[in-house]
Structure formats: structure tokens, C-alpha cells
Specification:
Elements lengths: L5 E3 L2 E3 L4 E2 L4 E8 L2 E9 L11 E2 L6 E8 H9 L8 E8 L5 E3 L2 E4 L2 E4 L4
Parallel strand pairs: 1-9, 2-10
Antiparallel strand pairs: 1-6, 2-3, 4-5, 4-7, 7-8, 10-11
Amino acid sequence: MTTIGRLTTHVLDTANGTPARGMTIDLYRVDDGGAVLEKSVVTNDDGRCDGPLLEGDAVIEGAYRLGFHVGKYFSEINGKGVEFLDVVSVDFRVSDSGAHYHVPLLVSPFGYSTYRGS
């Protein structure tokens, strides 16, 4: 069986115990010249993207950054301004273009955690 490389993510709102619906996520490719925006998406009702951020030939080995707009998300659902976190940036490296990279974010207005999921 041949595997097709892909990059996926999802966001869980740990402050409210729900998926983070409606959060903007920016995907950047990073190299010596800086970060280049590849794609911007908004999470669905399940806190996921409607499809992979990258898939197949679009998955290229190298450095990437996901920018999760958590400040805007919490401002909209809590009716307050940004309290602490604004954009959470997760920098990571793809070392196998044929693998599945899943980068979830668990977030509250004041802290976050991430890991390589499956």
C-alpha cells in the first residue's frame, strides 16, 4: 500500500471543552528567505479543516509554520479583547513527504499545547 503525504490539523478549545469552530489558521512554508503564506483556512464545527492543508505532491520536505489565530477566536466567543495569546505559531519540519503529519492544538486564552498526532 502506498501512502500519500498529507498535513492536517485540528483545534480543541480546552477552556470551554469544545472544538474551536471558526478559528483562522495560516499555513506558511519557511526557508532562508522567510515565511511565505501557502494557505489560510477556517475550522469547521468539529474544529478541523474541511480537507488536508497539504496533500500528495504539495507535501514538500522542509520547514513549515502554522499560525493559529486564537486571540481573535476567543475575542469573538467571549466578547472580550485579546486577553493574552494572539497568534500561536507552531514551527515544525516535514522530513518525509510521503508521511501523514497531524499537528493539533489544544488551547485556552492563556496557554496551549501541541504534538505530532496521527
